[in-house]
């Protein structure tokens, strides 16, 4: 009988990186949200509004309390974090893959911007710049969390 069959919880734990992914997603998502909120406060570019925008989600009111909208943003970040940890556990290169995810997620500006009059225009260069910088920082933080987690997995600490 294989070890995975005798100890299914250990098998599940190694195949589905829930805890590491949840923490990574929350840390990176909170950072992105705070970064874009500060940028919006300082520049009046509506990038934080865009991040939390739910105007296009059927069945939801166009506006919810900020904490609920931010929670929805964090739920997406957690899903990304779980996928990211799963991906690097299979193929390594945590920093470059984190930055790749950040770059890819910055492309969401293109379909999200036209969906609401409350968010920056598709051709707002300032908003695009801050959005891309924020998402590259998000990806870099994913990568740093992943590098730390990946190193801990290869070199466990024994007490």
From TrEMBL:
Keywords: Membrane, Transmembrane, Transmembrane helix. The chain crosses the membrane at residues 16-36, 67-87, 99-116, 128-149. This is Uncharacterized protein. It comes from Paenibacillus polysaccharolyticus.
């Amino acid at each position: 009988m294989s070890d995975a069959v005798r100890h299914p919880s250990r098998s599940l734990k190694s195949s589905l990186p829930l805890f590491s992914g949840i923490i990574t997603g929350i840390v990176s998502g909170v950072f992105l949200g705070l970064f874009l909120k500060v940028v919006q406060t300082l520049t009046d570019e509506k990038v934080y509004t865009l991040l939390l925008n739910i105007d296009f989600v059927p069945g939801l009111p166009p506006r919810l309390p900020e904490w609920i909208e931010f929670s929805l943003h964090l739920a997406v970040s957690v899903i990304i974090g779980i996928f990211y940890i799963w991906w690097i556990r299979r193929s390594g290169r945590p920093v470059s893959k984190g930055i790749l995810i950040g770059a890819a997620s910055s492309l969401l500006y293109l379909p999200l911007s036209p969906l609401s009059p409350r968010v920056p225009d598709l051709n707002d260069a300032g908003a695009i710049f801050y959005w891309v910088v924020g998402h590259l920082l998000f990806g870099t933080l994913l990568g740093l969390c992943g590098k730390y987690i990946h190193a801990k997995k290869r070199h466990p600490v024994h007490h």
